[in-house]
Structures are given as structure tokens and as C-alpha cells.
Amino acid sequence: MTNLKVPSSGSAPAPSDDGGGLESLRGDCARMVPHWAAPERAPSRPASPPLPHGVSVPPASARLLDALPDYGG
How far lies 41's CA from each of 35, 37, 44, in Å? Predict the structure, then answer.
């Protein structure tokens, strides 16, 4: 196992690679930005709420909930 020595002041230097290092990578990314332009955002339409299905409520329960101020009126 190798013990890498890191300088105590400042930030550690970026590891070198075969492609030219971090500055080269940043330059490549900056040159590619025009090729990856995001499409214009289309206005989103509000989704309609799903209709309840398969639910039956007894009339007495419906009246009870309708009478409660937190639920019905």
C-alpha cells in the first residue's frame, strides 16, 4: 500500500491523468456547452385529479362528514 503525502497548506493538487488534467477537462466541457443547449421549456399543463373509482360511502357516513367543518361544510 502506498502512503501518499499531501501538502498541509492549501488544497491538494488534482491527480494527473493521461488526458491533460482538470484544466484540460474543463476546457473540453466549455467547448461542448453550445452543442448541449437545453430545449425551450414547454409550459406544463395542470394534471387533472383522478376520479375515485371502486369507492362507495354509505349515505349516513356522507352526511356525517358533510356536517363536520373540517371535511364538508
Answer: 17, 12, 9
Is 12 within 8 Å of 6 (Cβ atoms)? yes
Q: DSSP labels for 36-67?
A: GPPPPPPPPPPPPPPPP-S----HHHHHHHHH
Per-residue pLDDT of the chain (73 residues; tens, 9 = 90+): 555 665 555 555 555 556 678 999 999 888 888 887 777 888 888 888 887 788 788 888 888 888 887 765 5
User: In this structure, how many other beta carbons lie within 10 angstroms of the beta carbon of residue 33?
Assistant: 8
* Whether 56 contacts 62, CB under 8 Å: no
Query: How far apart are alpha carbons 46 and 49 in whole angstroms?
Result: 9
**66, 72 in Cβ contact below 8 A?**
yes
